[in-house]
Design goal:
Structural class: mainly alpha
Mean pLDDT: 84
Largest sheet: none
Shape: globular
Number of helices: 21
Strand content: under 5%
Low-confidence stretches: none
Length: 429
């Protein structure tokens, strides 16, 4: 049975406010945001969202929640989480992380480790068009670097996540780029030219900040002999990803490569390989549960008319080109908060953004760039987004430990606002 939104109003998006209030309240009790159990927050918020959903018996409301928690896109993401956990844990057990870290330390000075990881993430994500795949490939390496140096794991992980979003935002094969350009009916190369003027200055500033912070962090480095063959699993993952293979296939190849090399070098047995893979799956259990709770919660918000309410509220008083651009940015940003998926957010408001840009003379290249950039900004800093969740799952960090060091998204928000407030370029009339 297909459900239609029953209402739209402030009540429909109130679960987001309840979630924020719970984070604040529990942080006071626990002694900091980083100590807040995210799963508990989502459980309590889901109970509230179920209670305010009217017009359906409880069994139907739960079924609606379950529909969102088990959506095909979400289940695919859960498979990625599971395979990523298997690969990361098996690779660590085999010694791949230690070997890769020793290689990186032998090449790069300690003061350049953080900005180098940021640049590497930028390059890889731009090449493969996925922030998740980039984080899966580099987060374990960052964790190893943190263990071998005095660099904070939260700082290194944030550099990886930041670079992953830079490339995802600009890549020609990224799903967000494709969604933004198709909904705005503009060429990808034109959107790239408009986008690079906003993203590149932010990336340069972020890289300088990471270099500054890394330079003032003491590093106690102990170089060991590099086991070159143990670096191979990460090289295989990066190369196959660059070749455009499906991320699940990439991770599967990485898992089997890890096992084969571990057996050949004697660092793994069949039993320890299986045991490490199983530990990797268990390590992703909370991440999978949080993702499912978030999916169900967002489905209830959609059913109650939260997206419709935002669209109506933000577009009824638009006047002028600059106001139109601000409304597009706000619209896709708030929609991203409700969906926790930047591609879905772009697709949800893309047609309306196209209508707004046509009516008020906003260049289609700019509207596509704003849609993609703002959605990536929001996606990168929400603690229940897939990217931060998988980064925290791979590194055993709380998402709130990572967020303060996400310099690139925060700078990008500033450059985007500057681009809107002082627009340049010819507009479509």
């Amino acid at each position: 049975m297909r459900h239609r939104p029953r209402r739209f109003g402030l009540l429909a998006i109130s679960p987001l406010f309840v979630m924020a209030a719970l984070f604040v309240a529990l942080s006071i009790v626990a002694g900091g945001l980083s100590k807040v159990p995210i799963l508990i927050v989502f459980v309590l918020t889901a109970v509230y969202a179920l209670s305010i959903t009217r017009g359906l018996p409880l069994s139907k409301r739960i079924a609606l929640f379950s529909k969102g928690a088990g959506s095909p896109d979400l289940v695919l993401m859960l498979w990625i989480f599971i395979f990523a956990g298997m690969f990361a844990t098996a690779a660590k057990e085999m010694g791949a992380i230690e070997a890769t870290v020793n290689l990186a330390l032998s090449i790069l000075p300690s003061t350049m480790l953080v900005p180098s990881l940021f640049v590497a993430a930028c390059f890889i994500s731009m090449s493969i068009g996925t922030s998740v795949g980039t984080i899966v490939a580099l987060a374990p390496i960052g964790m190893g670097l943190s263990e071998q140096t005095a660099l904070p794991l939260s700082l290194i992980t944030a550099a990886v996540v930041s670079g992953a979003f830079f490339g995802d935002n600009l890549s020609f094969i990224s799903d967000t780029t494709i969604a933004a350009t198709r909904t705005q009916a503009c060429a990808q190369k034109d959107k790239f030219r408009a986008n690079i003027r906003i993203a590149l200055p932010a990336a340069i500033v972020a890289m300088l900040i990471y270099a500054f912070v890394g330079q003032h962090t003491d590093a106690d480095i102990h170089l060991q002999e590099i086991a070159w063959i143990k670096v191979l699993p990460y090289l295989v993952v990066i190369v196959t990803a660059l070749l455009g293979m499906n991320v699940l296939l990439v991770l599967s190849i990485g898992i089997f490569t890890t096992g084969i090399i571990g057996l050949a070098t004697g660092t793994l047995t069949g039993a320890t390989w299986i045991s490490a893979s199983a530990m990797g799956i268990m390590g992703m259990a909370e991440l999978c549960l949080v993702s499912m709770m978030a999916g169900g919660l967002m489905e209830l918000i959609r059913y109650n008319g939260g997206i419709i309410y935002l669209i109506h509220t933000l577009t009824r008083r638009v006047t002028g080109c600059r106001g139109a651009e601000l409304s597009i940015a706000t619209l896709v940003g708030l929609t991203n908060l409700c969906t926790a998926n930047n591609t879905v957010a772009i697709l949800s408001v893309g047609r309306l953004a196209n209508d707004i840009s046509t009516k008020y003379g906003v260049d289609k290249r700019r509207s596509a760039s704003i849609l993609d950039t703002v959605s990536c900004c929001v996606q990168s800093i929400i603690p229940y987004g897939a990217q931060l969740l998988i980064a925290s799952g791979l590194t055993s960090l709380n998402p709130f430990d990572i967020i303060p060091y996400l310099f690139y998204p925060f700078v990008l928000i500033g450059t985007t606002l500057l681009a809107i407030l002082w627009p340049r370029g010819k507009r479509v009339q």
